[in-house]
Every structure is written in structure tokens, then in C-alpha cells.
Design goal:
single chain; alpha/beta; Rossmann fold; eight-stranded mixed sheet; two-stranded antiparallel sheet; globular
Length: 356
């Protein structure tokens, strides 16, 4: 299916597709993302080849500007040359720091022995990729490097096997799921997100795995137990239907970044569910402090202490190293400057104390 056919198919099989707009109280960030996404949907420009994985409020993250034939193909020669000249003349410092942070992330992956994963998975050949940087015989962007790192962790920590069930809350456009499915073709993958983002994931994943079983939102009733899923299947589960799986236990549950962005009532919906409490492995990457007093990044009071669960044993805990050295040009205290984020991120693996 082409992109339009994918979108039509997904919306046809998602009877509550437009009801996500009723969830605008979830938090300020996702309120804005939802509002802008549905504006684009209404205007018919939400799922084009050039923006189904990048739109207002959500992107593949920046890369240094680079002249290449692949960049010309995706951005156009004139547009690329103008951007390149502007970057080299007016953004020299930012470009230098951006490249340095990109190289740091690459070296962190190499430190873990992930160089082969980098070379085997160039981002520029994936569906909808427009932001990428060619280096050392492959191509990357910051979000892709994050996914490669997480994939390496999943492999090294033996978090998943063929036939296992993985539930990911907040799956974005499905890039991580595509990488994991490539290395664990029999894994059963459940993506939990808003309808429009699940639609983007379906566009991405169905183009890469057209022969896999793609379970649409209107088919969820046929899978009351996640163990009923076929091996290698993808399930697209809207956040509004999370209750369907909240009382189950699976092999791996993950959340990267978004739990710490939620208001507490929505955070509690996930973290107090049996899925997060009793599943074999829970793998989280989130902020130490969601809203530091000096910079209220998110409208929530969640911090590292909230992730402590006496029913779970910590298997691994450390700073999340990806993008750790990235400086962002942003306004704080009325001044624009290159700054790190207000709170670093932690990486934590926990196991159920009742599982061996």
C-alpha cells in the first residue's frame, strides 16, 4: 500500500480516530502536539511522504547540515544549498557543537560494541527519512542513534526473544519497533500511542513488513489476551484502549521519555497497572526531575522517586548517555543561549520480584 492507502486503511479500522481530541487535558506538550496533528489531518497534509515521521512538535531531531546526493534527493538542490550556506555562515558554532554531540553518541554505541548495528542500519534508507548525516559508511540522526542504542541494550541484556511479547508505551513513528522486529522476527509487538501516531507507525512498519500481521484498533476484541497474537505481529493499541491490556503481564514493557511528561493521573494509570507492576522486565528512560523549580519544563511534579517500586528489583540503573552532551539553543531567563536540558535522564531496568 502507498501512504494514502495506509492512512485510509488505518482510519477506516479506527472508529475512535478523531476522539483523541477529547483527551487534550493529558498534559500541555501532548495537548499542543495533538492539536497541531489534527489541524494537519483536517487540512489533508498530515501524512505526506515528507512529514509522516516529522511534524510540528515531533521530529527526527536535528543533524548537522551536509551536502550529499541523498540530501539533494530528499530536500531539493536549491533548498539544500541555501540551508548549507546559512548554517556555515550564521550557525557555525551550533553546527560544530551539533556534530560533536553526534560523534559522542556514535562513540557511546561503539563503546558497547554496537558498530555493526550502525553499519547495518543506515537511517537514510528507511521510509520517510529526511534528516540524516552520512558518516563512516552509514547514516544517522539523533533519534536513530537513540534507537540503535536501545536496540543494543535489548540485545545485550537479553530482554527479548522470538515469540516474546513487548509492549511499548509511546512508540512515535515505529522506528525502534522496526529495528527490534528486524533482529527478533518472531517477537510480538504492541504499540501504545495516540491514533495519529499509530497511523504513522502503521505507514512505516507496513512498508517494511508487509507480510506481518498488523492488528488494527477495531480488531482488538479478537485478542483479549496478548498471548493470542501471532508471532511477528504488530498490534496498534490507542491510549484510550490501554485498559484492555492493563491487567496483563508480558515479557517486556518499555517507556522512553513520555511518562515523565505526563500529568500524575495519567502517569499513575500506567505505573499502577498490573502490566507495569508484574511484567518480567520494565525498561524506562525518563527525566530525573520532570519540572525543576528553575525551569518548569512540563506541567507535572513527577521525579525519580516516583519510579521506585518495592515489588520490583532494579537490574540496571545509570544516566541515559545518548544526547547527554547535546547543547540546544533556547531561551531561559529571557536570554537565548546554547544550553543543556534542565534535567538529565535516567535509564532503568527492573524485574518482577516474583519472576525468575
Amino acid at each position: 500500500m502507498n501512504i494514502k492507502e495506509c492512512v485510509d486503511h488505518f482510519i477506516y479500522h479506527s472508529p475512535d480516530f478523531h476522539e483523541d481530541l477529547e483527551m487534550l487535558e493529558i498534559d500541555a506538550k501532548h495537548t499542543n502536539i495533538l492539536t497541531e496533528a489534527y489541524k494537519q489531518i483536517k487540512n489533508g497534509v498530515a501524512f505526506s511522504k515528507s512529514n509522516f515521521r516529522t511534524w510540528k512538535g515531533q521530529t527526527d531531531l536535528a543533524t548537522p547540515t551536509q551536502l550529499s546526493l541523498d540530501a539533494v534527493r530528499t530536500q531539493g538542490l536549491i533548498n539544500l544549498v541555501v540551508r548549507y550556506i546559512y548554517a556555515k555562515v550564521f550557525r557555525r558554532t551550533e553546527e560544530k557543537l551539533l556534530l560533536s554531540a553526534l560523534l559522542d553518541d556514535i562513540d557511546i554505541i561503539k563503546l558497547l560494541g554496537g558498530e555493526k548495528l550502525l553499519s547495518e542500519n543506515p537511517v537514510h534508507v528507511t521510509p520517510g527519512a529526511e534528516s540524516f548525516y552520512h558518516i563512516n559508511g552509514t547514516s544517522v540522526n539523533f533519534r536513530w542513534l537513540r534507537y540503535i542504542y536501545i536496540l543494543k541494550r535489548i540485545i545485550d541484556q537479553n530482554l527479548l526473544s522470538n515469540g516474546d511479547i513487548w509492549v511499548d508505551v509511546g512508540s512515535f513513528y515505529g522506528g525502534l519497533q522496526g529495528l527490534v522486529r528486524k533482529h527478533f522476527p518472531g517477537a510480538r509487538i504492541v504499540l501504545v500511542d495516540f491514533h495519529h501516531q499509530l497511523c504513522r507507525s502503521f505507514i512505516y512498519l507496513s512498508s517494511q513488513f508487509p507480510d506481518a500481521k498488523h492488528i488494527m484498533p477495531d480488531e482488538l476484541g479478537n485478542y483479549r489476551n496478548l498471548n493470542d497474537m501471532q508471532e511477528g505481529a504488530f498490534m496498534y493499541l490507542p491510549v484510550s484502549d490501554y485498559g484492555r491490556i492493563a491487567d496483563q503481564s508480558v515479557n517486556l514493557v518499555t517507556n522512553y521519555f513520555s511518562l515523565g511528561e505526563m500529568r500524575r493521573e495519567f502517569y499513575d494509570t500506567y505505573m499502577n497497572s498490573q502490566l507495569f507492576k508484574t511484567s518480567n522486565i520494565v525498561y524506562l528512560v525518563n527525566r530525573f526531575v520532570s519540572a525543576p523549580f528553575f525551569e518548569k519544563t512540563y506541567d507535572t511534579d513527577i521525579n525519580i522517586l516516583d519510579y521506585k517500586n518495592l515489588d520490583r528489583k532494579v537490574k540496571y540503573f545509570d544516566i541515559f548517555p545518548m544526547h547527554h552532551y547535546l547543547l540546544i539553543n533556547r531561551i531561559i531567563f529571557g536570554r537565548m543561549s546554547l544550553r543543556n536540558v534542565s534535567s538529565p535522564y535516567f535509564e532503568m531496568l527492573t524485574t518482577s520480584v516474583n519472576k525468575t
